[in-house]
Each structure stands twice: as C-alpha cells, then as structure tokens.
Amino acid sequence: MLGNEKKTALSPDEVLGVIKTLESATTVGDLLTGAAKALGVKVSLYQHFTAVGAFDFNTYGNFHPYKVPEEILEFYSQDNKYDRDPVIVAAFAKGRSIWLSDTINEPYVKEVKHEAMINWTLKKVGDGLCCPLYGPDNRRGYAFVGFGRDKTEFAPIMPYQIQTLVQLMHVRYCKMIKSLQRQIKFTRRETEVLELMSFGKTNAEIATVLKISKSTVDGYVKNIFLKLETTDRVSAAMRAQTLQLKT
C-alpha cells in the first residue's frame, strides 16, 4: 500500500483491511509479518518490552525485525539497556509517532550526541515513523515503520493512521503473549499474604492480621518468591499484578 509512491495515506477501506489482518492472525509470526505486508512497509522493527516487575525489565525485550539491514541488527543484538537508544526515548517523550529524521532535533538526542547514528540509519533504511506503544498490564513496545519514501510525500493524517494500527498490533501481541504465559497458581492463604505484602505489611504484621505465626508467614513468603521467581517484596507484588495471577 504505502510503499506505492502514489499513495499518500490509507483509505478507510484499507485501514479496515489492515485491522482485519491483525484480528485474524493466529500466531505471533502471522501477526507481525501480516501487519508489515498489509501496510506495504519496506523495513520495520517491533520491540515488546518486558513487563514491569520482571528481572529483565530494563532490557530491549523481544525484538522482531522485518527486512532490517544486518548492520542495524548488530546494534540491537547486543545486550543493550532500554535507555541506550535515544530514538526510543524521544518517541516516548512525544507520546506519539515521530519521524526518525525529526528525532535529531529532540533535546535528549542532542544531549547524548546521537545525531550521527540517526543520519547513518537514515542512509541505510530511509526515513520512517518511530511509534511508542502502550499495552495492557503496563506492557510497552516500540515500532519503527519505514516505506522507503520521504516524509513530505505523505498526507498529514498518515502518521496518525500508522500509530493507531501498530498500537492495535501491539495490543494484539500482548494478548497473544498473555495466553501463552505459564499460569501460576497460588493457594488462598498465599494470596492473602501477597495482598498484605502489596500494602507494605511486614511478615510480623501479616501474622497478626491473619492470626498465624510469623514463621508460617515466612514460609508463605518464601513460596511466593519461588513461584514468581523474584527475591524481594516489591517485585513480587508488581509481577503478580502484571501477570494477573489466579488463585
């Protein structure tokens, strides 16, 4: 679609067509590849950041490239931290899509002197939209969508169309991932302990509220940490909220 040099924006029917493609996808691969093909992108990447409370929250998370040059893949394949890419920071600062070429003027990009890297990327893949994505359970993501064309060739409505569609894709991805997650089962008492932990109660205070011994509470807390694969109370509460665990 938008890879066609005569197209400046998507028609209502084309928008609906992309939405149907997203909704009909049954696998993560079909979802991501289908979205790229339906939009007619030349190059794109999608990143799903790990949920708040997970051990690897600060890393890039799941990275899904589509026709991305090897040189750029090498950068993202490193063990980088989330805040290392100033373009992503700039996109989230805006709270909406921003053209890659426009990120050069963003304060943080200038502060960390990232302009050269952006210019290098523009030469490799051309301009594109950098889209911050927001999903359920505090799951964020990021997408770069490029069409091999200059931004001046598109209608003003086009960036908003792309932001909306990749946002829908991100939510769909989050739901797919959630359905695949291992469900952790808590006992009724463990649930009560975890709830009181989330309110900042100490083990001694929890023992008083539940009218059980502190050593018994200690055992419940240990089981909770093991099930959630964490070692502190804050992370345990955040992970439980993120995973929406059942009892």
Automatic annotation (TrEMBL):
Superkingdom, natural source: Bacteria
Database matches in InterPro entries: Sig_transdc_resp-reg_C-effctor (IPR016032), TF_LuxR_autoind-bd_dom (IPR005143), TF_LuxR_autoind-bd_dom_sf (IPR036693), Tscrpt_reg_LuxR_C (IPR000792), WH-like_DNA-bd_sf (IPR036388)
Full protein name: HTH luxR-type domain-containing protein
| UniProt keyword list | DNA-binding, Transcription, Transcription regulation
Alphabetical GO biological process terms: regulation of DNA-templated transcription
Annotated GO molecular function terms are: DNA binding
Query: Is the keyword Transit peptide assigned to this protein?
Result: no
Span of domain HTH luxR-type? 179-244
Organism listed in the record:
Litorimonas cladophorae
**Pfam families tied to this protein:** Autoind_bind (PF03472), GerE (PF00196)
